[in-house]
Write a structure and sequence with these properties.
The protein has two helices and four strands, in the order E-H-H-E-E-E. It is α+β, with helices and mostly antiparallel strands and about 90 residues long. Strand 2 and strand 3 form a beta hairpin. The longest helix has 11 residues. The structure holds coenzyme A. Coenzyme A binds next to strand 4.
Length: about 90
């Protein structure tokens, strides 16, 4: 499992997780693309055997003292193992 910075190339994989994790209120692809492209965002993906199995995003406007975690998702098949930074990861 590897955590790396997300890019727009990950959009399709992220949207798959987004739609399966948030079936009733998933962000649109346009919104997610804007998040990935924003200079104020910091998105990561978690990969397992080359497959994106999680993502998380922070928004921290340049110059601002605060940032917000916008979203976090771990694929259903990979949950409960500490990838979402639960106690098991520490
Ligand atoms: C929330 C989520 C990312 C956790 O990922 P995970 O890899 O299963 O989490 P971990 O194994 O690292 O840790 C599990 C810990 O998170 C807690 N947890 C799990 N889901 C939670 C939730 N919805 N709210 C608060 N805590 C949660 C567990 O109780 C556990 O706590 P512990 O370490 O004290 O025992 C995952 O359940 C998920 O993707 N859910 C669907 C999307 C979602 O609801 N995202 C959050 C809102 S944006």
């Amino acid at each position: 499992m590897t955590v790396r910075t997300a890019s727009v190339d990950d959009l399709a994989a992220i949207m798959h997780l987004e739609r399966t994790s948030f079936p009733t209120d998933a962000w649109s692809e346009a919104t997610m693309r804007a998040e990935l492209e924003s200079p104020h965002g910091y998105y990561l993906v978690d990969e397992t055997a080359g497959e994106v199995t999680g993502y998380a995003g922070l928004r921290a406007p340049r110059g601002a003292a605060d940032g917000d975690v916008q979203t976090i998702t771990v694929a259903e098949t990979a949950r409960g193992r500490g990838r979402g930074m639960g106690r098991r990861a520490r």
